[in-house]
Amino acid sequence: MPGIITIGNQKGGVGKTTTVVNLADALGRDGYRVLVIDADPQANCTSILLKEIGLREQFSLVKALEAPIEDGNLSSMACTTSNDNVDVIPNTIRCMLWERTAANTPDSILGFLRLAKHDTGLNKYDFVLIDTPPNIGAMVNNALMLSDYAIVPIPTSDQFALDGLATFLRILQNIRSQNGKLRLMGVLLTKYDSRASVYVKNRERIISFFSSKGIYVFKTTIRHNVDIDRAHMKRKTIFEFDPAKYGAKDHAALAKEIAQIVEKE
Amino acid sequence: MPGIITIGNQKGGVGKTTTVVNLADALGRDGYRVLVIDADPQANCTSILLKEIGLREQFSLVKALEAPIEDGNLSSMACTTSNDNVDVIPNTIRCMLWERTAANTPDSILGFLRLAKHDTGLNKYDFVLIDTPPNIGAMVNNALMLSDYAIVPIPTSDQFALDGLATFLRILQNIRSQNGKLRLMGVLLTKYDSRASVYVKNRERIISFFSSKGIYVFKTTIRHNVDIDRAHMKRKTIFEFDPAKYGAKDHAALAKEIAQIVEKE
Ligand SMILES: Nc1ncnc2c1ncn2[C@@H]1O[C@H](COP(=O)(O)OP(=O)(O)OP(=O)(O)O)[C@@H](O)[C@H]1O
Ligand SMILES: Nc1ncnc2c1ncn2[C@@H]1O[C@H](COP(=O)(O)OP(=O)(O)OP(=O)(O)O)[C@@H](O)[C@H]1O
Ligand SMILES: [Mg+2]
Ligand SMILES: [Mg+2]
Asked: Which residues line the pocket of ligand 1, CB cutoff 6 A?
């Protein structure tokens, strides 16, 4: 059974998608088999990882969710990426319509569980990483109901992202009452630019604040790296773009840190 | 009747809230009366502009929306800010529940129009600025149904924000069929960091791409400025924090540019 990790934060632009695509590639390069589920209807993950974009007419998360109840599963929707160890379940904007129709049905939080229930094809993966949208709606709830862990990216410069964490932790608590295996793996500091002293001080303040609350902060901090933006523009992971850059080194270090945490359990 | 402007982009973290709070303050300092409507349930605008946070138990957008049909209006929910020319209608997370219950009712796009219909109190404002969440749900649809203009912030470094614009323009077109006065005022380039050549080139490429499509790009570009983050951390607008900084100068220039555009019409 794979370790299933939701990358979540209802604040926008904190680096959820950036973390998912680059962490997946890093784990894949370390020899792990990884499935990425793009649970965001805006499908930014898909735009990076799915090399043949036309495939998502036949293979997508929303197609799995819309299939007749007995027919749906997740693993049959997996598509290859440029890393042989990484597959992706793409998404499309139609997922937004699905969210609306599923709104007053069990699928609004149990859809992914239903699809995963007898899905033995998932067992070939060591990790499942789920990218989620910037809200606390059906997709995040579904992802957390399926997950062993949540990782919350927080930019060291973003006050609003910090403000929103309490709300996200409440969502985790609610879901834990139904999914007892769900834990917060930790907070991941992102977009860290050490050139401005306010960001350096803020990072230290954030780390000590979370320690005092017993919340784990990853030892790896993802530094701000212009090559991360450049990789996205080229529809590549940072490793495909230039593995010598900080963005690659930081995600490689994060992959090792996460693999250790999961292996200890 | 005020000029009503939605600041929208379904991509997260592009600077919607940053633009709304600082543009409002800039317009206020130029002598215009401004109402800010925080249409995001995450209420980041509220956390900056509402000095007495307890007020939002009595005064909020969601309270207006939940009031009995004949009783609701917007202007009675307006609270003061530290700028005498700027009022804010706060929001709370309960707005997310409202969105769900309103989902299959006319209010899911007509709620704001209903509240504004006989609301003569709105006429004391020259501008209404509406901050919206990173999605294309009820709040954005409501805001656009009420608006004369939409402004779309796009960071010069963000490929996904650029990818998402086509979708946002489609939403504008759909709403225009019911609200004939709605226009895209323009795209606002944000978070512009001229230190990396890829960002300088990207900005030029974005500007020429939009010109070729007949889409107006504001002459004012909002530069990346660490003081914008510092102002948010202090719950201040950039003008309250330090009007000498780039963040203030850029939003002041934007206010002048927008006032000219609106006055020409
Ligand atoms: N370490 C970094 N260095 C430089 N740019 C970064 C870094 N991390 C993220 N970014 C940039 O920040 C922007 C937002 O990142 P991303 O889209 O991954 O966030 P998100 O949380 O998935 O956003 P959303 O909430 O909209 O889904 C993107 O332009 C991305 O390239
Ligand atoms: N010009 C700028 N210089 C420096 N930081 C900026 C600038 N504009 C925005 N930011 C920072 O980027 C982050 C995202 O900005 P903001 O919250 O305004 O975006 P948003 O589009 O409202 O996000 P959301 O979609 O989550 O509502 C914040 O930490 C903000 O301080
Ligand atoms: Mg994303
Ligand atoms: Mg915002």
From this structure: A 12-18, 40, 44, 134, 190-191, 222, 224-225, 228-229, 232; B 11-13, 134, 157-158, 160
